[in-house]
Design goal:
The protein contains 7 helices and 13 strands. With 259 residues, the chain is of the alpha+beta class. The chain has a domain of 133 residues: Beta Barrel (OB fold (Dihydrolipoamide Acetyltransferase, E2P)), CATH 2.40.50.90. The strands form 4 sheets. Strands 1, 2, 3, 4, 6, 7 and 8 form a 7-stranded mixed β-sheet that branches. A hairpin with a 2-residue loop joins strand 2 and strand 3. Helix 3 packs parallel to helix 4. The longest helix has 19 residues. It holds the Pfam family Excalibur. This is Micrococcal nuclease. One of its GO terms (molecular function) is nucleic acid binding. It comes from Bhargavaea ginsengi.
């Protein structure tokens, strides 16, 4: 009786290919990272999707307001300065530019907004810090954009636009346009706000309004609603330091409200 020839998978070409494929699949599966789902962030939070919803806001502790577009927060276990993305407000104490019209008003309004609730920041997809080491972020209070409020009230201009960090640019430009059309704040001085900053000479030439703003600041008293709205475009409620019954014609507890 003839002896049967013994064969194995390794001696069969098809079997060898199957074994190689099996080893390759096992190797690939072993190399896959855990929790690497599309759009998820890493432990360090370095990647924030461009369409990140409100739940991506990062709660932070406010330390103090520096000026109209800069604050100090406690984040990542240490105190850090935050420069607001996509906006620019007049200076309050610049070494070269000094104090600019509406700089103090922007700072005070920024402080008021931040004192009104829970503060959070949102990063965009571009760089997270500037050359001074400041964080670059959108800032929110109770889920509302501080940047958009400052633009809406004429206390900031859209500026420092560096793609790809342009997530809220369209909204901000619309808010700026509404303030500009109504002549609020910085837009009450012709040609004061420019694409590159603020023209102090134009403010000096404008005379009366800028002089009144610099002298009275946010406190008042304001002679009329034109003066008050140049600082507080939406008017002020009773109890606010700038409120006056004389300017509350309909006695509804709101002075110089926009009609």
């Amino acid at each position: 009786m003839a002896k049967r020839k013994k064969t194995t998978m390794w001696k069969s070409p098809a079997g060898a290919v199957a074994v190689i494929l099996l080893i390759a699949i096992i190797y690939i599966l072993a190399e896959q990272p855990e929790n690497d789902s599309p759009g998820s962030s890493t432990e360090t939070g370095e990647q924030v999707p461009a369409d990140a919803p409100a739940k991506e806001l990062i709660p932070v502790e406010l330390v103090r307001t520096i000026d109209g577009d800069t604050i100090k927060i406690r984040y990542g276990g240490k105190e850090q300065n935050v420069r607001y993305l996509l906006i620019d407000t007049p200076e309050t104490n610049h070494p070269q530019l000094g104090k600019q019209p509406f700089g103090e008003q922007a700072k005070e309004r920024n402080r008021e907004l931040l004192a009104d609730g829970e503060v959070a920041i949102e990063f965009d997809i571009g760089q997270r810090t500037d050359k001074y080491g400041r964080l670059l972020a959108y800032v929110y209070v109770n889920g509302e954009s501080v940047q958009e409020n400052l633009l809406e009230e004429g206390l900031a201009r859209v500026g420092y636009v560096y793609p790809p960090s342009t997530r809220h640019l369209e909204r901000f430009e619309l808010a700026e346009k509404r303030a500009k059309d109504k002549g609020f704040g910085i837009w009450s001085i012709e040609d004061y706000a420019t694409e590159s900053g603020f023209d102090a000479e134009k403010a000096e030439q404008s005379g009366e309004i800028s002089e009144t703003i610099n002298r009275k600041g946010t406190e008042g008293p304001f002679a009329n609603c034109t003066e008050l709205r140049a600082v507080h475009p939406k008017g002020v409620k009773k109890g606010h330091h700038a409120y006056s019954e004389r300017l509350d014609g309909d006695r509804d507890g709101m002075a110089c409200e926009a009609s």
